[in-house]
């Protein structure tokens, strides 16, 4: 009995509170950012206001992604169900690391794009971020194209991530969705027979 309890403590059933909070906060921020980015490209009327929102939101996502990555590297995540096929385990792990890479790369590319254009990265009135690349039309074009391409990739990965989460919640009805949706307070209770 003690070994089972020790085993449950070593392998958590849920992500920790910081991971869960950051996950849901960043999910909302990233979805908002995707819609803001799309709206920026399709409207002239609200373009300036959307750009003014896009910049600080992107940097906030970058900072939260760094915090989330540090937390992820310091705390053990719950294990995936043992009966998942290898390809699903591989796809889940690969998509998570791809999401981390995109959450870090997208803001840096946006920052570099503005720096290459010689434009300030205005966080709020009176506070600008320093340029991270030299002014260069060629570099600006490359960063712009890369930012746009990765935004499309991020949209696709987010859709796949949401789809997989809903499949686990509604069809498989396993512990995958619950590990991010619920706290671990019930993890000390023995698992019920399925």
Provide a short characterization of the protein structure.
Helix content is 71%, strand content 4%. The chain has helices at residues 2-10, 17-42, 47-74, 86-116, 137-172, 175-181; strands at residues 121-124, 127-129.
Secondary-structure-derived class: mainly alpha
List the quaternary state of the chains. single chain
Gross morphology: elongated
Q: Output mean pLDDT.
A: 88
What string, H for helix and E for strand, traces the elements in order?
A: HHHHEEHH
Q: What is the alpha-carbon Rg in Å?
A: 20 Å
Separation of the first and last Cα atoms: 20 Å
Number of helices: 6
For the report, how would you describe the main beta sheet? 2 strands, antiparallel
Helix content: over 70%
The number of E-state strands comes to: 2
Q: Which range does the strand content fall in?
A: under 5%
How are the strands of the biggest sheet laid out side by side? 1-2
Low-confidence stretches: 1-8, 186-194
Outline the structure in words.
- With 194 residues, the chain is mainly alpha-helical.
- Helix content is 71%, strand content 4%.
- The radius of gyration is 20 Å and the shape is elongated.
- The model is unreliable at 1-8 and 186-194 (pLDDT under 50).
Secondary structure elements and pairings:
Blueprint: H1 2-10, H2 17-42, H3 47-74, H4 86-116, E1 121-124, E2 127-129, H5 137-172, H6 175-181
Antiparallel strand pairs: 1-2
Helix pairs in contact: 2-3, 3-4, 4-5, 5-6
Keywords:
194 residues, mainly alpha, elongated, disordered C terminus
């Amino acid at each position: 009995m003690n070994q089972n309890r020790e085993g449950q403590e070593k392998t958590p059933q849920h992500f920790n509170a910081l991971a869960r909070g950051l996950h849901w906060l960043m999910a909302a921020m990233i979805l908002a950012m995707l819609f803001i980015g799309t709206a920026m490209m399709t409207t002239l009327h609200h373009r300036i206001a959307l750009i003014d929102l896009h910049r600080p939101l992107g940097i906030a996502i970058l900072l939260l992604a760094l915090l989330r990555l540090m937390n992820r590297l310091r705390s053990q995540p719950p294990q995936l169900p043992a009966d998942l096929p290898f390809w699903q385990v591989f796809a889940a792990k690969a998509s998570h690391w791809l999401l981390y890479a995109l959450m870090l790369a997208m803001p840096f590319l946006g920052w570099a794009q503005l720096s290459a254009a010689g434009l300030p990265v205005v966080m709020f009135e009176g506070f600008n971020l320093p340029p991270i690349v030299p002014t260069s039309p060629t570099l600006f074009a490359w960063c712009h194209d890369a930012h746009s391409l990765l935004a499309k990739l991020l949209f696709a990965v987010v859709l796949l991530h949401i789809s997989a989460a809903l499949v686990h919640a509604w069809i498989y009805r396993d512990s995958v969705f619950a590990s991010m949706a619920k706290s671990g307070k019930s993890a000390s209770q023995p698992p019920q027979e399925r």
